[in-house]
Structures are given as C-alpha cells and as structure tokens.
Write a structure and sequence with these properties.
Elements (H helix, E strand, L loop, with lengths): L2 E10 L2 E11 L4 E5 L6 H9 L6 E6 L5 E3 L12 H8 L3 H10 L8 H16 L5 H11 L4 H4 L8 H15 L3 E5 L7 H13 L3 E5 L3 H4 L4 E6 L2 E6 L2 H42 L3 H22 L10 H5 L3 H10 L18 E12 L2 E12 L14 H12 L7 E9 L21 H11 L6 H10 L17 H9 L1
Parallel strand pairs: 3-7, 3-8, 5-6, 6-7
Antiparallel strand pairs: 1-2, 1-4, 8-9, 10-11, 10-12
Helix pairs in contact: 2-7, 3-4, 5-7, 10-11, 10-13
Length: about 500
C-alpha cells in the first residue's frame, strides 16, 4: 500500500460530497478515477495533495513517499518561464537548491550547516538535479517545445503545450505517486500516443482523472466516485463498462421492486385507515391501527433512502431488452441539456471565411494556404499538432469579430466574419476575471459581455440544464468549483 484514503465526510455547505469513501493504491498501480461531473474527482485530488484539508477523515501515505500532481489551470504562473515552472514543482528541488546556493557563505563556523550542505549535495546528485535543466529541455523538445520556448513565459504556450509541460514535470519528478488530472485535454494525437506509452511503462503509481477512453484502457483498475462512495472495479475501462452494466441492470431491477413496494405501502396505509374507521370492534380497530403504523414505519424507512445514481454507456444500453431499457431510461442519472437555435437551412448565411490564409509570429508563419467557410448550422473541426496554429486561427476570427487588430502576423490571405456576429468561446483555461465571482454573477457577466440580456429565471434554468442546483450552487465562487463544474460553466 502506497496510500490509504478513508473519508468519513466531505461537505460543501449542506451538500455532502463524500460519505464513507475508502480506497487504497499500491506501488506502480495505475488507477483511473472516473465519475459524473460534480462528483468531486478533482476535489479528491486536492485532498490527497493537502491543498484541501476541510474534511473528516484520514489520508495515510507510506513513509518516505514522494507525491507529485498536475494542474489544469495556470493562473499565477503566467510570467514564470517554462523551465522555471517545471523546476519549482520538482519535489525537493527548491529546498535543496536554496541550501546549495546560500549555505557556503555562512556555514564555515557551523558543523550542522556543513553537514546539511553535504547531505543536500548528495541528495541533489542522487536525484539527478545537476543535469536537470538539460533533461527538461530535451524532454520538452521531444514534444516539439523548443529551447527558446522553454525560456519564454508560460503564458506564451497553447493549452495543449501546457499539458505537455505538466507531463514533462510529472515524468522528471521521479515520484512514487503521481496524481494527474485530465492529461490529454488539448493534447494532439501524437502527444497523446507518447503519454500513453509513458503511462503504461511508468514506475510510479498513478491516479489519473480522465474522460479519454484510450487513457482509461491503459489502467489496472477503475475507481468510480458515485453517490459519495468509491467503487472499485478490477481491470481497465472496457472491463468497468461490462461490470457496471451488469451491476446497474441488477440495481435498476431492485430499485423498481422498491418503488413498487413504496406504492403498495401507500395503498395499504389508505386501506388500513378506511378499515379502521369502518370497524366497531375495539380489537379489530387495534389490529388495523397496528398494521397501518407498521406500513407507515416501513414506508418511512424506504422513503428515507436516497435514490442511487444509474449510468450505463450508450453501447450497453443498446444491448438491453425493451423492458429493461424502459426502466433504465426512467431512472437514469440526469444529463446536461444543451439548448441551441435550430437552423432549417444550413446554407443561408455565411458566418466566417478564411481564404489562402497564412498566420504566424515575428517572421515565422505557423501555416499557409488555409481556406474554408462556415455557415449557419455547420460543424467544423480544426485538426493539427500542438503549436500548429489552431488557437492562433481562432483568435484571429475573434479579433475580426470584435474589430480589433490581429494578435498574430498576417503573411497572406484574408480572415472575414459576418458583421455583428456573436462568438461563444470555450476557453482552454477560464479567464482570471471570473475566478472570484459567484457562479450566478459569472453567468450574468458572460452574457453581458456579449450584449445578451439575461434575467433571474434564465440563470436558474441554465443552472438546472447544466446539472447545478439552482437553489445553492449559484452562490458558489468559480474558483471553488470542481474541474467538471468549471467545464459546465464554460459551456454555459
């Protein structure tokens, strides 16, 4: 065992996130952490790293265990160079480097300091930190992040490139336990392939949060967070889907029986009341009253049980018989409901067009000869390597729509958008201005920024459609939301 987690309770206000959540992870074990949005996967990682200590329970690490985690957001680190960012997060690097750099000037009269300095040198060497900057630059180069980029501020990288920096940081940390949150978000297909290759052969034990089936097919075990508990499934994601489908079918059957039992008890209560009222014999009245009270007690016990969450993947649902499929559809967990404008004729209006376009920075084009159009109702996918210019192209469209200068260099061609077009943007990272706002205020601000009116009723409807609780979640600060909840705010 490398880590043992026992959480009696974790709450946010009146909302109980975990209750009696327990699991262990063993050396070199690769664990996929899954669960529906809002179940607290990212929160759990913050608890494991010690960033969140507001819970009732215990997290035990094996003595001497080195743990490292990845970040999804990089606010506050934008001005650090890429190299500085990786170095400062390497376990023990900053402390050892400080001793090596500062102690020689003051340690001559202190045997304790001299010993500390000697121990630090030895440990620094054991961890390979004397060559670490070259190692990091070489590792970044393998992911098409050049040495010059490694010495520029982190803010200069795309979202996908920042993911690669996180991967290099985790790999170079040589930790015993790595906690990785959505590693392949914004990664291109080549980088993802490299990540999975490393993942499979890594010496570290790894807990990974991911919605990427390719990643989850490489794990040894799935832990699902559901109804406040940690459910363990041996094998990879395909094994989990098979086992989960079988268990869920059984649970839906049991839940259906329970609901029929509740309905029968309610009918019995009414029937025993009427029989009691019609009876004249004291013994008979007493008997019916006793049966009524028992039925009420049984009903209260069943009504007090929270409804379980039912979820089966789409393929497994297709394999269900008609009766079971109907039962599952009736009781399944709620999904996000996206409402968009319907378009009858997708060829009516041209929204945006690029023609023979070449963009880049300085004297270097990222791409050239790009041409396409997009009209009402169209769906268009930009496919390419990290750093190939996908975000640069989208930023050019936004600049044109807002009447601003292009943030990149235009080498050739044109970018044009329909006048007064409104563009909704799913950012790779939430804008820092939203982080201190409440969810309700952030939704209102995002609409106002686009010149779209929004009222209290619309805000509450959006919260409900995107699986938030309209009564309580609107007052939650954005910076306290989980990764999944932040993603749902982005979609809104």
């Amino acid at each position: 065992m490398i880590i043992k987690v026992s959480i009696a309770e974790k709450s946010f206000g009146d909302n109980i996130l975990y209750e009696n959540l327990q699991f262990e992870v063993h050396p070199r074990e690769k664990v996929g952490l899954v669960g529906r949005n809002g179940t607290g996967k990212t929160t759990l990682l913050h608890m494991l790293t010690g960033e969140d200590t507001d819970f009732d329970g215990d997290i035990k690490l094996k003595r001497g265990t080195i743990m490292v985690g990845s970040r999804q957001e990089h606010h506050g680190y934008d001005e650090h160079t890429v190299l500085e960012y990786v170095l400062q997060d390497l376990p023990d690097y900053a402390r050892l480097k400080h001793i090596i750099d500062t102690y020689p000037a003051t340690m001559a009269q202190s045997k304790t300091k001299m010993q500390t300095y000697a121990d630090a040198l030895d440990r620094f060497s054991q961890l390979g930190f004397f060559e670490v900057e070259g190692d990091i630059i070489n590792a970044l180069a393998a992911y098409q992040i050049t040495e010059s980029q490694a010495n520029l501020p982190l803010k200069n990288l795309s979202g996908g490139q920042k993911r690669l920096v996180e991967l290099v940081k985790v790999q170079r940390s040589r930790a015993d336990l790595a906690l990785i949150d959505e590693p392949t978000n914004h990664m291109d297909y080549v980088a993802k392939r490299a990540f999975i290759k490393w993942f499979k052969g890594a010496d570290e034990a790894i807990i990974v949060i991911s919605h990427d089936r390719d990643v989850l097919r490489a794990v040894d075990r799935i832990i699902e967070i559901r109804d406040g508990e940690a459910l363990s499934f041996p094998g990879n994601y395909d094994d989990y889907l098979r086992i989960n489908a079988s268990k869920t079918v059984s649970q839906v059957n049991e839940y259906g029986v329970q609901q029929r039992r509740i309905s029968n008890l309610r009918d019995n209560i009414v029937r025993f009341q009427r029989l009691k009222e019609r009876s004249r014999d004291p013994g008979t009245i007493k008997r019916f009253k006793g049966q009524e009270m028992k039925a009420r007690a049984d009903l209260a016990k069943l009504d007090g049980q929270a409804a379980p969450s039912f979820w089966i993947d789409r393929d497994s649902v297709g394999d269900l018989n008609e009766k079971m499929s109907t039962a599952y559809q009736k009781h399944k967990a709620k999904n996000i409901r996206v409402q968009t404008n319907s378009v009858k004729d997708s060829s009516v209006q041209l929204l945006a067009e690029v023609d023979n376009l070449s963009l880049g920075y300085g004297n270097t084009p990222l791409f050239e000869g790009i041409s396409w159009q997009i009209r009402d109702g169209d769906r268009l996918r930009l496919h390419g390597r990290n750093g190939a210019g996908k975000s640069t192209l989208l930023n050019a469209l936004v600049a044109r729509a807002e009447g601003q200068p292009l943030p990149s260099t235009l080498f050739s061609g044109t970018v044009s958008v329909e006048p007064e077009i409104k563009i909704g943007i799913y950012e790779q990272e939430i804008a820092a201005e939203y982080l201190p706002m409440t969810l309700k205020a952030a939704i209102e601000q995002s609409f106002m920024a686009k010149g779209v009116k929004i009222g209290e009723t619309k805000v509450r409807q959006l919260l409900s459609d995107y699986l938030f609780n309209p009564a309580t979640d609107g007052d939650a600060p954005i910076n306290r939301l989980s990764g999944g909840q932040k993603a749902r705010f982005q979609l809104i």
